[in-house]
Write a structure and sequence with these properties.
single chain; 136 residues; alpha/beta
Length: 136
Amino acid sequence: MNILVIDGQGGKLGAQIINLIKNKNYMNVKIFAVGTNAMATEAMMKQKPDVIATGENPIIVLSKDADIIIGPIGIVIANSMYGEITKNSSFAVSDSKAIKLLIPINKCNNIIVGVTNNLLNDSLNQITDYLDSTLK
């Protein structure tokens, strides 16, 4: 099972996701992490994913073989995350056959209507609930 975690900005969310997955000790899971910038990559690297990379091309390449892609909803919206998500990156994620676990974050002029006061911990718990039901 290949899980691709994508994050930008400071990479804090991606690091939290990787930490959650690693603490669950799922069998036969390989974690790929891609930061949209060096700072995000560095933050995720501290959680020791199996593979770490930075930028558009790793998102494009790794999206093809991912079984699950996890990240903020901006990873499927071109030019989101203050321009860190390119059109090619967002298309690669959207076009991937992987299951996408997208975290609703209302930033960068992208407002998810109906999502109010959504706590990040609730989203992270829903991700682990999904992974628990899928990977165990």
